[in-house]
Amino acid sequence: MLIAQAGAYSTLKKRVAIACKLVEAAAFNMVKNLRYYHNREKDTGGPIARIEALALQLPSATDIPTLMGLEGNIRMSYYEAFEVIINDFSMGNRTKQPPGNEVNAMVFFVNMLCYTLCLDMIYHTQLNPTISFLHQPGERRFSLALDLAEVFKPILADRLIFALMNKKQIQPADFDNRLNSCLLKDSVRKTVVKAWDEKLNETIKHRSLGRNVSYKHLVKLECYKLSKHILGIEEYRPFKAWW
Hints:
Blueprint lengths: L1 H9 L1 H27 L6 H11 L8 H17 L1 H4 L16 H21 L20 H24 L8 E4 L2 E4 L1 H16 L1 E3 L6 E3 H16 L13
């Protein structure tokens, strides 16, 4: 597996093909979220149109920088919709280290939970977590988990954020605002982690398997699908939400 995975990374055509599939699935899942809220009288039509237009350019990308640029513009358009989806909070500009406000703090924290989940599921397979396709591999980071997290953040992380904030389970007082930063208080982190764990244990009827599987198991299945693709067993079809 290690040799095959390294070969898929070092062969530009193979790497770009996998990376493109990851970005396509991420864009699809983002639009799935936005359409849900658009059907509930939230004006997300503009971001949907921009993401779909950018997604059409993905198949023509021939290198990773081009794909990363398209992915960045897709995500920027997506985050613009957070302003209308999330009630009583404003996201403003996307800020990471440190987060600049409450929404950015939630995105940062829950994205880390998603990244950790993906890394955990990678360890259940023979995949090497340091050899990635969309993100540049690095000695001190498990970049394959970043790749897989792109697919699942809209479905797992963002939907949880929308639910917690719109149901007022997270309040402005739950954040610690310091010099140019905003972080969740420790006590509230436990609340978010509890909600995250409950989400992962929820089950849905899998269309291909014909049985109920947990959200957590969906991520493990994604790792197996990617493994089969790298080994030349089966074409990789990344996860796209059907609900």
